[in-house]
Recover the amino acids of this structure.
């Protein structure tokens, strides 16, 4: 396979084929110099080499002698091998095919196989391929010689782009608005509820108080008398009463206190227990 | 080449150079690239004349000469797209607070919402045309007060700001449940264009220092 | 506004739109942005007439319209252009084969060139934006088909692919026939974005397995 990366061959024929020198292609390489072309690296495969050889015949490709071309190619390959040049396989395959073509052209056609192409047909096919490759090269050259954008013709250097202006219109209805207001008011009011630290009398505190008080009193006394000095605020009053009552029941169970009430919602009386055997007489 | 042909060529050269350049070209650059015989000043006058009244005009811009679309056709270079956008929840809440509590400062809005308000939220609302800067509160720091606009009333189909349902009505509509503590402030929105007794007018320097002051 | 004033305005509008853009604008884009009453075809003729022989001319390119500097002033402007990377001979041949034979498969390109194509050659062309993957040929192996792009037309100042230089002669000589032996019907190059009857769309997995399949 021809190495496409190695484009820059030094021989004038190849140079002339490089696109940047297309204009110089008008001046054909000298027909007397095909023997100079031994550098296979300069060619893009056997077809390219064949085309270069054909052009050296200095005739219209349509009228080229394929037989002469095949001979030229074969002698080129021979020369290259004599000089021990490395040849890619496709060059050798082409050489073999051309040797076959040559034999077909020289020998009379053997009509033993209907499907097989005649020597002339094979030659025409090769000539067509050469012409087609050359046509594509010419087309490329013509393409490249067109005034090209950014090289020969120029677009507006400082284009004024179309600016897209977005008009945002917002949508919201009254319901959205009210829901938003209500929900955030509510959320905020819920989060701002502070559970105040309440002053709570523990049972132990109440019990301690009752024990202390009962030390001085042995007769029925309204429990409120003991507690009144602690009723500094309504909040405190509730907790003091509740805790003291609960504590008093506990002390009755323990047998250190007796409780009496004369009727519903009447004052509660307490006194130190007279007996140590438990069992209060409260109602 | 006749004299007029030469002039035409020079004019064409000047035209092509200015067209193809990606930036304005100044006098010396243009002169350098024109033949020495060209009458540069006259060519500029001629070229400007050619484009006078056309869709594209030759303009002297900061650092030289350039072709520019005629001012009256600038609209051709704008594609307008309308897009409807929904307000974010933060924006809706902020808007509703401004509506109910106006005139309200940013600090007040934040106090009611319980979260700080991003600059963007107020910007979006200002852009929507539904809220406006009213004035400045006569308190330390002189914060800007916000209020709603006539467009707000129009968009939400309210005849006046007093038509906003009150807290009791919100409760009645099931939008507020009764956990709202009885002591919650009952807003009395006021969108009177006249400034209140505790508001000062905005000054001209509003958009420079105050934005900074308000950011925290 | 008088009739001639209206025409002048429409002409200025067309001029401004085309002048402002560095890319060709196609008929429908231009028509869309002109008033419905504008006689688009006449305006184009008038505008082209205004710029005839000037340093900047109106050109039909890549199925659209664009202002470009006049061809003959290339010498003036080339000084400033950055040296463009030159295409290798292989790339150049491949480009012209794709252009004239499109849609073309890699195998067809190789058959015409008589040499296998290195991956890099197609890559360079794809990267240049001048060729693109079109689809897949409905033949065994389902090879990818290549074609040219609007940027190709724009770069080479071609109105359409039918304007490729020498296309008619090549066609007449049967040299656009991609199959051997000669004498078979001759296909025309086709860069129609719609796929041909023997092309399938590319699948999403294009860049993974097929690149491998195509490599030899």
């Amino acid at each position: 396979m021809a190495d496409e990366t190695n484009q820059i061959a030094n021989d004038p024929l190849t140079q002339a084929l490089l696109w940047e020198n297309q204009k110089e292609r008008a001046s054909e390489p000298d027909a007397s110099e095909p023997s100079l072309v031994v550098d296979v690296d300069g060619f893009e495969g056997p077809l390219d080499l064949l085309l270069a050889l054909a052009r050296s015949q200095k005739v219209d490709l349509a009228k080229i002698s394929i037989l002469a071309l095949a001979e030229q190619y074969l002698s080129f390959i021979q020369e290259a091998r004599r000089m021990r040049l490395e040849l890619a396989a496709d060059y050798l395959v082409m050489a073999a095919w051309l040797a076959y073509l040559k034999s077909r052209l020289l020998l009379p056609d053997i009509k033993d196989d209907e499907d097989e192409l005649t020597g002339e047909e094979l030659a025409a096919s090769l000539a067509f391929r050469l012409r087609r490759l050359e046509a594509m090269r010419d087309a490329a050259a013509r393409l490249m010689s067109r005034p090209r954008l950014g090289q020969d013709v120029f677009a507006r250097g400082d284009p004024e782009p179309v600016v897209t202006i977005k008009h945002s219109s917002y949508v919201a209805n009254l319901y959205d608005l009210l829901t938003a207001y209500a929900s955030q008011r509510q959320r905020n009011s819920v989060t701002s509820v502070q559970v105040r630290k309440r002053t709570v009398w523990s049972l132990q505190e109440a019990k301690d108080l009752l024990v202390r008080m009962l030390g001085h009193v042995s007769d029925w006394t309204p429990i409120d008398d003991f507690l009144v000095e602690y009723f500094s605020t309504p909040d405190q009053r509730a907790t003091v009463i509740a805790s003291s009552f609960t504590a008093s029941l506990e002390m009755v169970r323990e047998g250190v206190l007796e409780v009496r009430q004369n009727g519903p919602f009447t004052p509660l009386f307490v006194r130190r227990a007279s007996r140590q055997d438990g069992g209060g007489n409260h109602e | 080449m006749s004299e007029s042909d030469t002039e035409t060529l020079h004019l064409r050269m000047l035209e092509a150079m200015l067209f193809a350049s990606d930036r304005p070209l100044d006098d010396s650059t243009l002169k350098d690239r024109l033949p020495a015989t060209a009458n540069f000043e006259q060519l500029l006058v001629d070229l400007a004349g050619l484009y006078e009244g056309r869709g594209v005009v030759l303009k002297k811009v900061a650092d030289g000469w350039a072709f520019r679309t005629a001012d009256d056709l600038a609209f051709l270079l704008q594609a307008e797209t309308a897009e409807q956008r929904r307000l974010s929840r933060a924006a809706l809440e902020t808007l509703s607070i401004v509506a109910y509590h106006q005139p309200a400062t940013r600090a007040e809005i934040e106090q009611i919402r319980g979260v700080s308000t991003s600059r963007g939220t107020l910007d979006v609302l200002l852009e929507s045309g539904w809220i406006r800067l009213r004035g400045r509160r006569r308190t330390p720091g002189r914060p800007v007060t916000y209020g709603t606009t006539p467009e707000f009333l129009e968009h939400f189909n309210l005849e006046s700001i007093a038509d906003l349902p009150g807290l009791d009505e919100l409760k009645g509509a099931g939008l507020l449940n009764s956990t709202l503590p009885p002591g919650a402030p009952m807003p009395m929105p006021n969108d009177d264009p006249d400034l209140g007794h505790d508001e000062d007018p905005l000054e001209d320097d509003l958009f420079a220092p105050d934005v900074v002051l308000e950011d925290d």
In short: Residues 172 and 178 of chain B are 10 Å apart (CA to CA). The interface with chain C takes residues 8, 11-17, 19-20, 33, 53-56, 67, 69-70, 73, 76-77 of chain B (CB under 8 Å). Residues 3-20 of chain B form the longest helix (18 residues). Confidence is low (pLDDT under 50) at residues 205-216 of chain B.
